[in-house]
Design goal:
alpha+beta, Helix Hairpins, 2 domains
C-alpha cells in the first residue's frame, strides 16, 4: 500500500507515477482519497477536544462526589459528550475504512530507474548468458518431446482435471523432484537462505498483505463453504506474511527465506494464451526466494536475489537473458522487476522463468511489518523482495528442450545427476 501521506502531500507525483504504469482509471480514487483525508483531519481535532472535555468532566464529577455535592448535571453533560464522541468515532472509522479501501486499490509507484513504457515492448534487455542451443536436426517442443519420452501426459490429466493440467510419469516425476531438491540445496547451502515449509492455504488478510486482494480475486482459487481460505498463488504470499504485524530487529536484516510450494492460479484473463504444454498451468510448482530488508539495503539485495536465480540457470547450462520490465509491464506490488527469460529451442524463443521484484515498503505497509534500525528506537516499515528461484515446470521444459538429442533422448544436466541417482540420459519410451 502507498503511504497515505505521500498520496495526500504529493498527489500530482502519485498521479504521474500511476499514469506511467497505465493505471489511468484511478484519478477519481486519488481525488476521493484526498477528500477523505480532509474530512479525517477535520474530525480528529474536534474528537480530541471532546475527549479532553470528557476527561476534565470526569475529574469534576469525582470532586463533586467527594465533597458530597450533586453531580447529576455533570453526569448528564458527560453522557451527552460520550454520545457525541461515539458518533465522531463512528464517522472517523467510516472515513478511515473508506480511505483504506481505496488505498488498497492503488498499485505501487515505479522506481526512478524503471524504463517508462506502456507494455512489454518497452522492456529492456540487461544482459545475456550462454549461447542459444543449436541442433543439426529440428528440435521438438516439450509438448511433443515429453509424451514421446513417456514422462508427460496431458490427455489423462485433462480427463481427471480438465485443461491446463499435466501428469508427470516415471523419470519425468523423478526429474521434477530432482529440480526441486537441487534448487533448495543451492539456495540453502550456497546462498544462505533459510528453508521454510509454509501452509498451502492462506487467509484473506495474507493475500491483502501481498496485493493479491482485493484487485485480483478472479485469479485465485477459493475454498468452498464458509472458509476464507485460498490456495496459494505463489509461496510469496505465506513468506511475506511470515512476520506479519511484527517489529523486526534491524540488526538481523536482511532475512532471506526460500520455500517450495505448489501454486494455483485460475489464469483469469489469459484465455487462449499459452494453451499448449506446461507454460501456463492452473497448478504448477515454484521455488520462491524472499527477503525482508531495510530501505538502504533493498536495491542491493534486489540485485543479489536476482543473481541467485541466475546462478541456478548457469549451473544447469541453460542460456538466458535478464530483462528489466517497463512501468506498463510490472506487477501490481512491484517498484522494480527483473525477468529472467530462458531459451527454449523447441519454440525458438526466450520465455520467462523467474520474476524478481522489489516491492519496497508496499507489502510491509499492508501487512504491518516494521523494523527498528538499531534494534531500538522508532520503528519504520521494512522493504520486501521476492523472486522465483526458479519456476519448476518451466525449468523442466528448458532441461528437456535444451538437452534433447537426435535419437529422441535427453541428456540430464550434470548438476542434476546427483539428484537423479546418477542418471545421465532419459531414453525414449519403447
Amino acid at each position: 500500500m502507498l503511504d497515505p501521506a505521500i498520496v495526500r502531500d504529493h498527489l500530482d507525483e502519485v498521479e504521474k507515477g500511476l499514469t506511467e504504469r497505465g493505471a489511468t482509471n484511478l484519478k477519481a480514487d486519488l481525488a476521493t482519497i484526498k477528500e477523505l483525508d480532509t474530512r479525517r483531519k477535520a474530525i480528529i481535532p474536534n474528537l480530541e477536544e471532546a475527549r479532553r472535555e470528557r476527561k476534565e468532566l470526569g475529574a469534576r464529577v469525582a470532586l463533586a462526589k467527594r465533597a458530597g455535592e450533586s453531580a447529576d448535571d455533570l453526569l448528564k453533560k458527560g453522557r451527552a459528550l460520550s454520545d457525541g464522541i461515539h458518533e465522531q468515532e463512528k464517522d472517523l472509522a467510516a472515513v478511515e475504512q473508506e480511505q483504506q479501501k481505496l488505498l488498497l486499490r492503488l498499485p505501487n509507484l515505479p522506481h526512478k530507474s524503471v524504463p517508462r513504457g506502456a507494455n512489454e515492448k518497452a522492456n529492456q534487455e540487461i544482459n545475456r548468458w550462454g549461447e542459444v542451443t543449436r541442433f543439426d536436426f529440428t528440435p521438438k517442443a516439450h509438448w511433443d518431446l515429453g509424451p514421446e519420452l513417456g514422462i508427460l501426459d496431458f490427455e489423462r490429466a485433462t480427463q481427471m482435471s480438465g485443461a491446463r493440467f499435466a501428469v508427470l510419469l516415471g523419470v519425468g516425476a523423478k526429474l521434477n523432484r530432482a529440480i526441486i531438491n537441487f534448487m533448495l540445496a543451492v539456495h540453502t547451502k550456497e546462498h544462505g537462505y533459510i528453508e521454510v515449509a509454509p501452509p498451502f492455504l492462506v487467509n484473506e488478510e495474507a493475500l491483502i498483505g501481498t496485493g493479491n486482494l482485493p484487485r485480483f480475486e478472479a485469479d485465485l482459487f477459493k475454498m468452498a463453504g464458509n472458509s476464507n481460505l485460498y490456495l496459494v498463488p505463489t509461496a510469496e504470499v505465506p513468506l511475506a506474511n511470515l512476520h506479519r504485524e511484527e517489529i523486526l530487529d534491524g540488526r538481523r536484516l536482511p532475512l532471506s527465506y526460500v520455500a517450495y510450494t505448489p501454486c494455483f492460479r485460475s489464469e483469469a484473463g489469459s484465455y487462449g494464451k499459452d494453451v499448449r504444454g506446461l507454460i501456463r498451468q492452473h497448478q504448477f510448482e515454484k521455488i520462491e526466494l524472499f527477503k525482508f530488508t531495510t530501505p538502504d539495503q533493498s536495491y542491493r539485495e534486489h540485485e543479489t536475489l536476482t543473481r541467485h536465480a541466475e546462478i541456478i540457470l548457469e549451473k544447469l547450462g541453460l542460456p538466458y537473458r535478464r530483462m528489466v520490465l517497463s512501468t506498463g509491464d510490472m506487477g501490481f506490488a512491484a517498484a522494480k522487476t527483473y525477468d529472467l527469460e530462458v531459451w527454449l529451442p523447441g519454440q525458438e524463443t526466450y520465455r520467462e522463468i523467474s520474476s524478481c521484484s522489489n516491492t519496497e515498503a508496499f507489502q510491509a505497509r499492508r501487512a504491518g511489518i516494521k523494523f527498528r534500525p538499531g534494534g531500538v528506537g522508532k520503528a519504520e516499515f521494512a522493504h520486501t523482495l521476492n523472486g522465483s528461484g526458479l519456476a519448476v515446470g518451466r525449468t523442466l521444459i528448458a532441461v528437456l528442450e535444451n538437452g534433447q538429442q537426435a535419437d529422441g533422448s535427453v541428456v540430464v544436466p550434470e548438476a542434476l545427476r546427483p539428484f537423479m541417482d546418477g542418471q545421465e540420459v532419459i531414453e525414449p519410451a519403447r
